[in-house]
């Protein structure tokens, strides 16, 4: 009875939100939530709700729809990361075995109810408090950066009729005065010395974006490995009774892990020459100080496993 009422409320809310998918047909939603994460149609509905929610909320995590029941486990891991970031209050959705949470009909209905309520609230807040213009609330992002530079250098507010050339000339003059007061080589020489033109900067931006995309893929892979590793901790009989405690410790730390890169061209301009002098942890001079007796114990098993992975 309770599930029937939840389904009715969900269908009414989906129509109000503008959902036009196949789960509005008679009995389709009930069949989908019964299969839960094993149902591609259920995952498509969740993915649609999350995509609509991301329009209004800055969410790092995302949920992808599945194409077959074999992808159910991966879908549940993605949902777990999303709910952790959103600080979901429902313990049945955030604790216990990650691979079994969304195989229960009531939990699936609860997930849809939660996502729908969050989307409804986000849309209402957007209507009641429309986004302010760049001039309101402190100005644009570029203005905020320039303002931060002036504050850091102790500069007074520039007059309204100043030109951009005069403004940046004033910043350059103040920087030279500040650097003259510090010891020699305190800041270091820049790593990038060659003057760049507009065409060069476009290429640098493209290179940085390509590297950022590759970094994001690798970061997602590492985060996925982390999720699977932590999930495997709960397979033992002793750990099954501690799943709730494990979730309380892991989810807050997991929610802050972002796959996005924060490195920009500004970091290239700020890089000093000492950045190119990084010693490898395996170099001889470093290993003289880090080598210890335990290395001899773990060295053979490590080599053994490397050979296994290589030949398999």
TrEMBL record:
Q: Which InterPro entries match?
A: FAM98 (IPR018797)
GO CC terms: tRNA-splicing ligase complex
PANTHER family, per the entry: FAM98 (PTHR31353), PROTEIN FAM98A (PTHR31353:SF9)
Q: Which family does it belong to?
A: Belongs to the FAM98 family.
Q: What is this protein called?
A: Family with sequence similarity 98 member A
Gene of this entry = FAM98A
């Amino acid at each position: 009875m309770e599930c029937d009422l939840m389904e009715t409320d969900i269908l009414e809310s989906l129509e109000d939100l503008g959902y036009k998918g196949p789960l509005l047909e008679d009995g389709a939603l009930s069949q989908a939530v019964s299969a839960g994460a094993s149902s591609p149609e259920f995952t498509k509905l969740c993915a649609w709700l999350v995509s609509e929610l991301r329009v209004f909320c800055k969410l790092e995590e995302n949920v992808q729809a599945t194409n077959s029941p074999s992808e159910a486990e991966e879908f549940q891991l993605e949902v777990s990361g999303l709910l952790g970031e959103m600080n979901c209050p429902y313990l049945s959705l955030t604790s216990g075995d990650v691979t079994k949470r969304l195989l229960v009909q009531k939990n699936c209905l609860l997930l849809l109810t939660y996502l729908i309520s969050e989307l409804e609230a986000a849309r209402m807040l957007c209507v009641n408090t429309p986004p302010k213009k760049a001039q309101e609330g402190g100005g644009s992002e570029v203005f905020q950066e320039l303002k931060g530079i002036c504050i850091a250098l102790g500069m007074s507010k520039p007059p309204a009729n100043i030109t951009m050339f005069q403004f940046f000339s004033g910043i350059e003059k103040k920087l030279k005065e500040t650097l003259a007061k510090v010891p020699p080589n305190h800041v270091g020489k820049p790593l990038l010395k060659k003057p760049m033109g507009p065409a060069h900067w476009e290429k640098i931006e493209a290179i940085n974006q390509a590297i950022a995309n590759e970094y994001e893929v690798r970061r997602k892979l590492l985060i996925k490995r982390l999720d699977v590793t932590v999930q495997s901790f709960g397979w033992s009989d002793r750990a099954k009774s501690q799943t709730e405690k494990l979730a309380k410790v892991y989810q807050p730390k997991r929610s802050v892990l972002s796959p996005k890169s924060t490195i920009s061209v500004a970091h290239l301009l700020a890089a000093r020459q000492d950045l190119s002098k990084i010693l490898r942890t395996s170099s001889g001079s470093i290993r003289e100080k880090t080598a210890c007796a335990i290395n001899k114990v773990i060295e053979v098993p490590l080599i053994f496993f490397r050979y296994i992975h290589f030949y398999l």
